[in-house]
Amino acid sequence: MTTKQNTPILPEAQLGPAERLLELVLGGSAHLWHNRPGVDVHGTWQPARRGVKVLPANQKQVSPGLFVPAAVKLYRQLLDIYKLNTDLMAHFASYALTQTDWRDLKVATCALMLVQGHAGQPVREEDGTVAFYDDDHRVIGEAMILHYERKSTRMLTPKAVLRVAELLETPEIARMNREAGFGDPGSKKPPMGRWKRVAQKWLQAREKNLPMLEGLVKAGFKETLKKIARKAGYRPESQAFFELLGWKQKQASGGHRQVGLVGLTLVKRERFDGLSEAEICESIETGRLSYKEVVGRLPKDVGLTPAIMVALLPSLSDRDLRMMTPTLEELGLLSEPTIRARWEKAVQTATDQRALHIAKNVRSKELREKLEEASDNAARLAVAEATAEADVRVMFLIDKSGSMEGAIEQSKEALTRILAGFPVDKLHIASFDTVGTVLKPKAPSRMAVQHMLQGLKASGGTTHAAAVHALHRDGVTVPTEAKLIVIVVGDEAGEAGDQFTRAFRECGYTVAAMALLLSVAGARGSTVRTCAGQLRVPFSEVSVEQFADPYQVPRVLKALMDAPTATGASQSGWVERVMRTPLLKVA
């Protein structure tokens, strides 16, 4: 029989900044910007369904662009962390840019750092003399925009630079910033902090390096660059800026413009109408044109042919290649050895699990399996990065008791997405009801994990400790120098927490951290949280629903797998890693 324990989670008001930060990362899968129409369902974005003209009363149509409810939630979470610990927020902003691929998070943290109150102001004595200067954390926001690393995917793109301003201009965000004291409470203009100044610097750097500016134009950012220039009030130093953007100028009403009015030779991107396939390929190779530059200019009677696609391949990133797998398959290019070799290399470098969605659109079983391999590689990369500094061993304990009826399948899908990312020799898995059963995948792959889990059915009582004892009987040991992370999958509704705690001590396992992948069909308990508290180790919680987002899986794994450096530490290893991140500076 399962003992239901409905002990409430720690109230939000009692969460410290580190706990709030971990909660944000483990539960923050919502995307802020969407490029297609959607529907707002109780503050959650969902894609609009075709043919539906009348929406239910609790839903409303949402245009493409910023989804305000998600933006407000994320920004409020960041603001709360900032208010509790400005230093943690400063390090987190630096970490977000240099250590993650979470584009919306980069935009939101950059926006906050550009407007927050620590701006290097002088602190004066009673007689008015300057005693010292406050920290200038707005420099971090500037550095996030100005940071440049050739061929890196972790810089802010032109679109991201523009989105920082759009976020700050959103009325709900502007209201929060005013209430936080980041701007004039009586002003009707939104607090923009240093965005205009740093956007001007950003544009100036690219104007002085015209090949860089030309590269952005070729990548399809022409209109974005124009919007940044208008919004920042940028005044170019030469006509070349306008010419590369194909931006015709006219004199302002005040008559103050001096650049770009006379002799402007605009660079225009003409269509390829009238050109043969060979001539189009020659134009691509001569001009080193990108896929985005070419695809909209192709004549309808030619279209995207295998030859044109081959000419465009040098401009495609590994991510582009994975995304375009269905197109490459349709054109028959993946049977060509050189192209296939490059595509397979792209599969090996995946940093997210979006390939699982792409796999649904390919015909070949072999290609689907390769794309699933890309998903496994993303998980492996995240685990390897998180465990690079320590020997980490992991116990996955899977609840298959009767209370998991209706939730066990969701648990299986989440586990399928993540278990293949762990080295087999450092991974120990057991399921439990009132009896523990050791599980071992036949191979480190998604297919092997699916095979291992397929027989799990929800039934029986709940004894978490049974899984620990099962692993111990099977001979599982943990080296003294290694750190053991225990991850429980279920609703933690089982025996009293002290019984779970006792099992680890009886078996001689020293736990460094615990996590719960919450999968609930009915009521939830508190067995795992209580055990973590008694063992005095960090506890993390994430809903299995988060693993449906292909971008969220690597983020969650990194946060869960960073074991604390000190035994008995109350702070997660991931938060320690964030605090060790050097603060960004303007070069």
Automatic annotation (TrEMBL):
Gene3D superfamilies membership: von Willebrand factor, type A domain (3.40.50.410)
Superkingdom per UniProt: Bacteria
CDD domains for the chain: vWFA
Positions of the VWFA domain: 394-491
SUPFAM superfamilies linked to this entry: vWA-like
One Pfam family per UniProt: VWA_2
Protein name: VWA domain-containing protein
Originating organism: Hyalangium rubrum
